[in-house]
Amino acid sequence: MTILDATTPEAETMTTDPWTRVCRVDDLLVERGAAALIDGRQIALFRTFDGRIYATDQIDPFSGAAVLSRGIVGDRAGVPTVASPMYKQVFDLRTGACLDTQGKEPLSVRVHPVAVTDGVVFVRISGDPR
Amino acid sequence: MVSSSSSSGSVVVVGAGMVAHRFVESLTARDPEGRWSVTVLGDEKYEPYDRVGLTGYFGGKTAEDLALDARVLTHERVSVRTGSRVVRIDRENCEVATADGATHRYDRLVLATGSFAARLALDGFDHEGCFVYRTLDDVAGIRVWVARRTAQLGRPLRGAVVGGGLLGLEAAGALQAEGVAPFVLQSNERLMSAQLDLGGAKALERLIEARGIDVRTSSVTTRVDADRSGAVCGLELRDGSWEPVDIVVFTVGVRPRDELARAAGLRVDPRGGVVIDGGCDTSDPAILAIGEVASFEGQCIGLVAPGYAMAEVAATRLLGGEAAFPGFDTSAKLKLSGVEVASFGDAFAETPNALDVTYADPVSGVYKKLVLSDDAQTLLGGILVGDASAYTALRPLVGRALGGDPAAYLMPSDLAPAPQGDLPADAIVCSCNGVTAGTVRDAVTEHDCADAAEVKACTKAGAACGSCFTLLKKLVAAELAASGKEVSNGLCEHFSFTRAQLFDAVRVSGLKTFTAIVERFGTGRGCDICKPALASILASLYSEHVLSGELATMQDTNDHVMANIQRDGSYSVVPRIPGGEITPEGLVVIGEVARDFGLYTKITGGQRIDLFGARLDQLPAIWKRLVDAGFESGHAYGKSLRTVKSCVGSTWCRYGVQDSVGMAVQLELRYRGLRSPHKLKFGVSGCARECAEARGKDIGVIATEAGWNLYVGGNGGFTPRHAVLFAEGLDDDGLLRAIDRFLMFYIRTADRLQRTAPWVEEYEGGLEALKGVVFDDTLGVADDLDRAMASHIDAYEDEWAATLADPEKLKRFQSFVNAPEVADPSLAYVAERGQARPATEEERTSGTVFIGGTTLAVRS
Ligand code: SRM
Ligand SMILES: Cc1cc2nc3c(=O)[nH]c(=O)nc-3n(C[C@H](O)[C@H](O)[C@H](O)COP(=O)(O)OP(=O)(O)OC[C@H]3O[C@@H](n4cnc5c(N)ncnc54)[C@H](O)[C@@H]3O)c2cc1C
Ligand code: SF4
Ligand code: FES
């Protein structure tokens, strides 16, 4: 079992069950995102080359289109990133911070905690969509 | 009957305008022996006057004040007849006849009849109170009308000036001086559209409005109405509005008065004007034409300076000297007090690769633009609005190297000139984001930006429309060099190679995956710059499917899903229609697919059909239908061959000399799917009429009786360029071989996102060197290039058909990994002109009725 977030899904399940089972790790392609629908909210999931899994909102804050999972995954100075396929702004997959604004005012994307248990990917939705 | 320059002869000048006056002055002043005597026949009742200064009439100048130097006309060998209109030229007898029946014999005839002011052929253009603005009688008429009408109506008048050019603005100022409240109607979106770009025109508009003259651009007058007394009372505009007016002045341009010449059978340009050569000779060696009536190289120009130049040429030649008209200088300056406007040289940056530098200060109403050659060294032209003080100094510098000082004229005149060289710190480099040259330099020196990309991130220069990026790169490179820093040519932080170096590295190493390549030659895990570049390189070398293995992770979304992403995240679908040729059955299939999936359809600029609004998860079903009907991917998404545009050619067209459609289809099928540094477009025309616009394409083919002419390096887009002739009279095989090699060589050596036009231009040794590579194998690579192309052609498969046959690849088109059947709920459409279009943000939030997602009626 790999846990990428401090809280374990089990511990949380006791109280409010905030973790949603999304898919299997094998359903995710390395360095190519996938979209998921969790309670009507669109999420983008990314599996990086080193095996980590990240979740962000699917809506690209710059274009307002639900497309982030379709961007190119890579890195900037070692930081894992996705570049929006629309206008190429680059986001830090760990924090959602915008690393290359392409000249626009920076806008970040919300990130969501991810946990993996027995090859299954869980996401805990954090915060309201923005 | 042409007299030789030594014997005495008679010159008759038709027209007693400004240019005639200058001609007489020049001829008599340099003819002490009295070789020529001159008769000037003018139809106006005045002796020649200063038309340029005509508006001075409203400032209190009289006809006498405006008269040109009378001493010229009282010369002993000059006689001037005013009020005598020439009605006929009798070339056989070398005579002209005037309206009062007199005839004048000539040895040389000089036509200086100028132009008349055009009116619009509108209903009511000649009601009382409608004027043009050309002669002393016109301005006198305006003054009388204004006085009379003001008295009749007992209130100040409202006046319309139709035409917002140089003359119109001057006329508006004149009406204002007479106490009329004027407004200017301009049919297009720019005042002074012959001289100014949009930025300059907008600045001018503000200045004119500030002077109390209303401006209405994009306003076309459709009718002039009169009241019961027959006096003008209103105007109707194309948008249906109606404007009350008491006087209308038409300043919509001038037409050369070439009717005499026409009737006499002299050569006249189809667009008007008596055709002259550099010596001002018309098609009859005894007749010359000068001034506004003369058409030189297909142009008549309504400015006095070129007319004066022609007058000098004509006089010099009559006196036996050598002289030639140098061509038009179209520089112009507006004469409207309080409004400074000038435009000179190549004001619209039409020279290939011209750069422009703009300084704009909307608060003080100043807009200045300098147009420079591609190396930012030579001044080509410019536009000055709001502060034209630099005009006189800059105009002479056109075509010369731009030293340190001239560019400093862009700055507000109260600031000191730039220290030395280069662009002044205040000069705007990026007009979208208002970034100055100084800010760009600071980014390099103060903020340690190491290349143009970093400067872009730091200053936002080049981050909007991108059109200033070339200038930005040059500035940054110069500044880096000046501060002794190394200029990095690397693709991005992951590879320090140029694309061409990387191509060779990949080819020689034989590595085929991103991981292997980045581990060997680069660092990290790549980004949206190096990954697609490498995907393209690998595709050119190995023709593997875009979605095979790790290649899939390197594709931009467009290549990844083999469609073009749209603003709302949906995609467009473009089936290939080789050469633009399509069967009725094919059209029906495309129509049915669009209808069944609710797709918006549009004919593209590339002779095919684009279907918009497809959801990611619909793409396979759409393509299944298309592939089953025999269509294949049109690669509208790829940096690869787009279209081969064709004209109808010899099959149908009565002028065609070869089968251009057949050749276009052959070319499109040969190069389809070929990945390259940027997209590739071709055109094939069946004859020199060039209906396929082939010379606007990367590869242009034009049929001649002798074979195909091949042109290369054309471009539309941001920097349009015509393709240049590469080879003539090729047979089919020769044509294909030349294109094979040219393209493969481009693919191997061009930069990322460098179209063929800049590549050809920047290739060391230029076009000649490229011809050497292609036709004489000067680099010894021809066989290799031929083989590479042959293997591309062999390995081609339709990537959509291959995708449909592979369930693993199809998984990529699921909408949601945990809900593959659910359609993207974020898409929303409204109907417009009978089709769907994405809803705007407003429409979404206001809940205006919309279609939720394009239909999903058919899904196999
Ligand atoms: C659909 C079409 C407009 C239309 O409705 O007619 C079009 C649409 C787009 N063009 Fe274009 N161009 C279209 C003909 C042209 C033409 C005219 C032509 O090909 O005859 C030109 C100028 C000719 C040329 O390329 O030299 C043209 C010059 C551009 C450029 C500027 C390229 C340049 O070198 O400066 C871009 C931007 C780029 O590629 O980087 C561009 C980019 C685009 C993109 C891909 C923008 C984007 O990234 O989303 C548009 C999306 C297409 C889509 O979703 O399907 N489009 N575009 C035309 C498709 C033709 C086709 O059948 O493939
Ligand atoms: C208000 C105004 C402002 C202008 N401002 C500028 C400016 O700032 N800068 C600039 O460069 N230009 C300006 N121009 C344009 C400039 O005046 C003309 O370019 C110049 O006058 C052209 O000289 P021309 O001799 O060729 O023609 P014209 O001056 O038009 O003279 C031609 C003469 O020939 C006569 N004629 C025609 N046919 C016959 C015939 N069959 N028989 C006898 N006579 C005939 C006409 O009546 C006319 O008098 C302005 C024009 C106007 C009206
Ligand atoms: S010109 Fe081309 S890129 Fe621009 S909006 Fe039209 S289709 Fe899109
Ligand atoms: S001018 Fe710089 S981005 Fe448009």
UniProtKB/TrEMBL annotation, chain B:
Per UniProt, residues of the FAD/NAD(P)-binding domain are 10-298
Cofactor detail note: Binds 1 siroheme per subunit.
InterPro entries from the UniProt entry = BFD-like_2Fe2S-bd_dom (IPR007419), BFD-like_2Fe2S-bd_dom_sf (IPR041854), FAD/NAD-bd_sf (IPR036188), FAD/NAD-binding_dom (IPR023753), FAD/NAD-linked_Rdtase_dimer_sf (IPR016156), NasD-like (IPR052034), NiRdtase/SiRdtase_haem-b_fer (IPR005117), Nit/Sulf_reduc_fer-like_dom_sf (IPR036136)
Per UniProt, [4Fe-4S] cluster binds at 647, 653, 687, 691
Q: Which domain of life does the UniProt lineage start with?
A: Bacteria
**All residue ranges annotated as the Nitrite/sulphite reductase 4Fe-4S domain in the record:** 638-763
Q: Where is the BFD-like [2Fe-2S]-binding domain?
A: 428-477
Ranges for domain Nitrite/Sulfite reductase ferredoxin-like: 565-627
Listed cofactors? siroheme; [2Fe-2S] cluster; FAD; [4Fe-4S] cluster
What pathway is this protein said to act in by its record? Nitrogen metabolism; nitrate reduction (assimilation)
- EC number(s) per UniProt? 1.8.7.1
In this chain, siroheme is annotated as bound at 691
User: Which keywords are on file for this protein?
Assistant: 2Fe-2S, 4Fe-4S, FAD, Flavoprotein, Heme, Iron, Iron-sulfur, Metal-binding, Nitrate assimilation, Oxidoreductase, Thioether bond
Q: Which Pfam families match?
A: Fer2_BFD (PF04324), NIR_SIR (PF01077), NIR_SIR_ferr (PF03460), Pyr_redox_2 (PF07992), Rubredoxin_C (PF18267)
User: Which Gene Ontology terms cover its molecular function?
Assistant: 2 iron, 2 sulfur cluster binding; 4 iron, 4 sulfur cluster binding; flavin adenine dinucleotide binding; heme binding; metal ion binding; NADP binding; nitrite reductase activity; sulfite reductase (ferredoxin) activity
The NADH-rubredoxin oxidoreductase C-terminal domain is annotated at 332-397
Reactions catalysed, as given in the entry: hydrogen sulfide + 6 oxidized [2Fe-2S]-[ferredoxin] + 3 H2O = sulfite + 6 reduced [2Fe-2S]-[ferredoxin] + 7 H(+)
Q: GO biological process: what's one of them?
A: nitrate assimilation
Q: Which family does it belong to?
A: Belongs to the nitrite and sulfite reductase 4Fe-4S domain family.
What does this protein's UniProt record list under function?
Catalyzes the reduction of sulfite to sulfide, a step in the biosynthesis of sulfur-containing amino acids and cofactors.
Give the protein name, as stated in the record: assimilatory sulfite reductase (ferredoxin)
Q: Which organism is it from?
A: Microbacterium enclense
